[in-house]
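2024-03-11 09:14:02 INFO worker-7 job=invfold-0412 stage=load source=structure_tokens
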């Protein structure tokens, strides 16, 4: 209850004051502060040169109806190592997908029609122990999640987090793996 009052007071102060510096409020274990009204207030802070850091142990602690609006309201997101796949799925949806180029190489055995070529292929196989093959290379564009829920849950090493930032103008940076140990 007190954290809700602190957040409301912070919002009132930054709304009333005209200052050149950035104002920030850090709330540890902000689970109880997340309401529909507080999400709307957080959205308005960016235009008032202010921000709030909401630390949550799990997104599941926030009412389901507020998950989407909360992810939309905050500009910067951080998923720490050990996040559940359930919470990681929300981050993955928020961070979206990107187009990546993939290369696939397939080896195909060469079958010769001419007797002399067959003889040379058989001789080569006898000497090297490998059949004569040719490579077929396929390069294609594939749409993939920037970070999947599984990667967030199982591939982020201890002491690391996946972080995405947003500028005051609303420009988004793609999520990056960050070492938090120094």
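2024-03-11 09:14:09 INFO worker-7 stage=emit residues=182
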């Amino acid at each position: 209850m007190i954290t809700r009052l602190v957040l409301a007071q912070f919002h009132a102060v930054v709304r009333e004051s005209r200052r050149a510096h950035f104002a920030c409020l850090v709330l540890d274990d902000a689970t109880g502060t997340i309401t529909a009204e507080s999400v709307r207030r957080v959205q308005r802070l960016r235009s008032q040169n202010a921000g709030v850091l909401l630390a949550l142990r799990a997104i599941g602690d926030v009412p389901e109806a507020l998950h989407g609006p909360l992810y939309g309201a905050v500009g910067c997101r951080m998923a720490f190592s050990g996040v559940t796949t359930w919470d990681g799925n929300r981050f993955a949806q928020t961070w979206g997908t990107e187009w990546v180029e993939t290369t696939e190489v397939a080896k195909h055995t060469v079958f010769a029609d001419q007797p002399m070529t067959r003889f040379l292929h058989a001789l080569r196989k006898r000497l090297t122990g490998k059949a004569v093959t040719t490579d077929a290379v396929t390069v294609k564009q594939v749409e993939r999640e920037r970070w999947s829920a599984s990667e967030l849950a199982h591939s982020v090493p201890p002491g690391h987090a996946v972080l995405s930032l947003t500028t005051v103008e609303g420009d988004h940076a793609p999520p990056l793996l960050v070492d938090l140990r120094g």
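2024-03-11 09:14:09 INFO worker-7 stage=report msg="The chain has six helices and seven strands."
2024-03-11 09:14:10 INFO worker-7 job finished
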